[in-house]
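dude i think i finally got it to work??
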Amino acid sequence: MSSLRDAAMNSKAWPFEEARAVLKRYEKKDPEKGYVLFETGYGPSGLPHIGTFGEVARTTMIRRAFEIISDIPTRLICFSDDVDGMRKVPENVPQQEMLRQHMQKPLTSVPDPYGEFESFGHHNNAMLRRFLDTFGFEYEFISATEFYKSGRFDDTLRLAAERYDAIMAIMLASLREERQQTYSCFLPIHPETGRVLYVPMKEVNAKDATITFDDEDGREWTVPVTGGHVKLQWKPDFGARWAALDVDFEMYGKDHSTNTPIYDGICEVLGGRKPNHFTYELFLDEAGQKISKSKGNGLTIDEWLTYAATESLSYFMYQKPKTAKRLWWDVIPRAVDEYHQQLKAYPTQDVVGQVNNPVWHIHGGKPPESKMVVSFGMLLNLASVAAAKDAAGLWKFIRRYAPEASPETHPDLDAAAGFAVRYFADKIAPTRQFRLPTPNERVAMEDLVARLKAWDGGLDDEALQSMVFAVGKAHGFEPLRDWFKALYEVLLGASDGPRFGGFIALYGVEETLALMERALRGELVG
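look at this
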């Protein structure tokens, strides 16, 4: 363990860098609460999106890294701000008109448009927990509704009433003048309508821990700040939550970064110690727009898991968290193959290399063995020519290429074969565009056909690749990539693909010959 801890203390992998920074908080003495608390937040205004998963995955990686370098116990809390008033109806849920009747009510007071749960907030919380449980995360879930109503937040809310002016000073400095006139860090929940009110305070009574305000109809009300009668505006809520729970670490997206001094200041006003932060870059959709729960753009967790295993998504999340990431269908195959490349490298690495390998962080230091003897990219190309309807349709080719492999002994490969057939059918087949070869390409392909007919080198993919390479050179392709691009466009209807020699070895020499002859006769076009 000492060598592992030594390697971790010097690792440049970002989870270890963040873990060391958290440990530094307690270099003089251990936390009085007896553990280090990691937190992630969730705004359940819409269905959980992949960015929400990313926060929990990345925070878990830092938590696991921390557990290697320290003996202090840890906890991870996923906090749902489900008292938030519904300010707009998400575009990607049913019963839009019904939901519009409940605008500004806390999400746990809005009926579930799916009719499955106690409320819309409960529905979205359940979706989040289902997604997180799919990945085996260890976490504790806290609902803001329960947090406010149970009294767990009451001491902090009383302190907020007592230090109202200090909180307001922080907030007002960040607001436009017109907003300053009506702003309050307290949002009362109307005793009759149940709606979250954005109204100015007439009085904040620190002694009684009450607020007095007029509602939209001009009626005056006085309610306690405790027991779920009010909620804090979201920026003060951030800092107050940190103080109430004594949070040590929280990460959030770049769009929150300008608010960090506000969150920290309010946490300190309320007697807390500001946590360590980690700001990550945002996830973008195909058009380069930020993904949004309410719009439903970008990929969902379920959509990713329709086409690839969970570990590939964790790998995608690990990579360069401080770089904006385009999250669209075409990133999935690359993530699968890069993940397995790292898995295969792991057993060959020393402990320093292993703690810097993404798979260490994805699997908490215990990565499995990769049995992917065929890449996902190659499986996609095989699916495009094999007319397979399921994984079994690819296995007759896989067995010939790798006789030692079977669905039972290579379950990750079997799962990937099924994913590849589905991905090809849904995402590649509808967009394929075959073309006829140019005159020069036709001559080169006819040469390749002749050489394949005379081939007696078996299914050695390196030898086949060298032969294909030699044909391209012999026919003057410069750069040589144009030769392989032509093969893929004419034979597969795509501009990119894995090594063509490997494709021949997997698909078979006779099958590749038949495919090429069909293409040369023009049967693949149209």
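The radius of gyration is 29 Å.
im so relieved honestly
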